[in-house]
């Protein structure tokens, strides 16, 4: 899949100006002029802060989004922007969640709510100060947004493990990830994140000690 260079995605001043997101080219079926309704999707009209030009830069499986879906997508794109190493903004990320909103780090089975949401972004940023999320495929269905992406960065921060501290070695990571966002009234109620941690640790030079696990039994 051909990747575009990093571009800024203008939302609106009230929402955000997103920059530094690498995005993949959208599927050709979604981009086909035959599927466009020029009256409903004017190239100059903004719906929910995202113009058709903005949507054209995104790897959407379907660009025919309602105003409500565009507003939801703008919230999610803003959260990815403030999660970047060069534009980290923990407060904006936390404030995008509903009062009872939750971030679920699904692979280790850890949930973050309330003030604990402030720990989500620093974890990756501490490991990879240049952390970047490359969006590869985005599907918007009402209040649900599903995204295939990869988390990229350079291992420059210490990793705390049960066996002690793993020292950074400058290794590059490119970690397969799947994110599922559930919104209501413009707020994130639930964010389920599936990170390929086994791939990430391997790329960082961390090997699991299967022998010690076997010898315990």
From TrEMBL:
Q: Per its UniProt record, what InterPro entries does this chain match?
A: Cyclase_SnoaL-like, NTF2-like_dom_sf
Q: Which Pfam families match?
A: SnoaL (PF07366)
Q: Which UniProt keywords apply?
A: Signal
| Record has Signal as a keyword | yes
The reply to whether tRNA processing figures as a keyword in the UniProt entry is no
Q: Where in the sequence is the signal peptide annotated?
A: 1-30
Q: What is this protein called?
A: Nuclear transport factor 2 family protein
Source species, please? Streptomyces hyaluromycini
Lineage of the source organism? Answer: Bacteria, Bacillati, Actinomycetota, Actinomycetes, Kitasatosporales
